[in-house]
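Reviewers of the previous submission asked for a worked example of the structure-prediction workflow described in the proposal, so we include one complete record here. The input consisted solely of the amino acid sequence. No template or homolog information was supplied to the procedure at any stage.
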Amino acid sequence: MSTRLLRRDTLLSTGGLVILAVIAVILSVVALTPPSAPSDAGSYDKDLLETATATQEPEPTQEPTEDISVEPEPEPEPEPVITTTKVVVIGDSYSVESDDPAQQTWVNLIAGNESWEVVNLSAPGRGFLTAPRVCDNSPCEPFPGTVEAVAAQAPDIVITFGGAADGDVPIGPAAAQYFEALRAALPEATIIALSPIAASETVPDWLPLHVQSVLSGVEAVGGLFVDLGYIGIGDSVTLSAESQSQIAATVQGALDGVIQQ
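From that input alone, the workflow returned the following structure tokens.
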């Protein structure tokens, strides 16, 4: 009886040990085997990525900016500046201005040009030796005695026109004296002398000599001599309108040439 019980206890003990050993092996295998990743891990990560992407606000699409800048209005062109040249005319009756349209002189005809300001100091009867018959706004002196009055105007250009009133008397020394004094008083001015003419179709014998005297006098001081030719057509006292128009055209051409230099 006791022997049988002892054998049964032995068997139970042995069986228990086997079972324990099997359990131990199973536990060891389980412990040594790395846990496998969940089968849906990839989808899980993908879901997280999609969720994060969905929650992130998309960057606004940059529309092409339209150039709305306003073109500046063009500045108005400045008014042309007109440079005025001051011209003093000193002469005899051929250069005295007239309010009568039928008796206008060459000075009337050029005075309307806005390129120059004309101051007329002419007086009838003035010569290089002869004093004027009438003196309104000009010295009652021959040309040499007018230098101070001309210089007082501070002109850019001085135009001298005369000599016919002196008649058949040599004017060379007086003309030279006049132009020398004029240059001394106005060292920077342009000095222009027009050739003497007579108001008749017949040219006096002494007129070419006066022309030469004026030419020599003005060129000696660096001035400009303008030869009008022998156009003195008139009534022996007054030049014709045609002659005055020709003189105006010639003088205007000379002034344009001087101003453009």
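The chain has a mean pLDDT of 80. We consider this example representative of the routine output the project will generate in years two and three.
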